[in-house]
């Protein structure tokens, strides 16, 4: 699926949750929707798009996608 379609879909989801009084609740709702209903390839593509600047993504959608991204690996030489 092309990234423009994923961005449009993410922004539509953002539009639904934008009515939340609390922006953190809206971000959590968007992230939950993406996690539950988008297939892994779609999530991976939107995460990569967001990591490269996220052109076209709304602010709430961008924050939600950021929550889906795996944490960065620890720096080399860090003891676990």
Describe the structure in your own words:
This protein is mainly α and about 80 residues long. It has one domain (about 5-70). The protein is about 65% helix and about 0% strand. The protein has 4 helices and no strands. The protein has helices at about 5-15, 25-35, 40-50, 60-70. The protein is globular, with a radius of gyration of 14 Å.
| Overall 3D form | globular
Mean pLDDT, all residues: 93
Distance between the termini: 38 Å
N-to-C SSE string, H for helix and E for strand: HHHH
In percent, how much strand structure appears in the residues?
A: under 5%
| Domains (count) | 1
How many runs of DSSP E, i.e. beta strands?
A: 0
Tell me the structural class.
mainly alpha
**Alpha-carbon Rg, integer:** 14 Å
Helix proportion range: 55-70%
Unreliable stretches covering 5 or more consecutive residues: none
What's the tally of helices? Answer: 4
Oligomer: single chain
Biggest pleated-sheet summary? none
């Amino acid at each position: 699926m092309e990234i423009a379609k994923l961005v449009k879909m993410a922004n539509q989801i953002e539009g639904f949750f934008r009515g939340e009084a609390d922006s953190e609740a809206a971000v959590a709702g968007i992230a939950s929707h993406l996690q539950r209903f988008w297939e892994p390839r779609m999530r991976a593509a939107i995460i990569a798009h967001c990591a490269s600047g996220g052109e076209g993504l709304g602010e709430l959608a961008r924050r939600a996608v950021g929550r889906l991204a795996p944490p960065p690996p620890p720096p080399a030489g860090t003891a676990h």
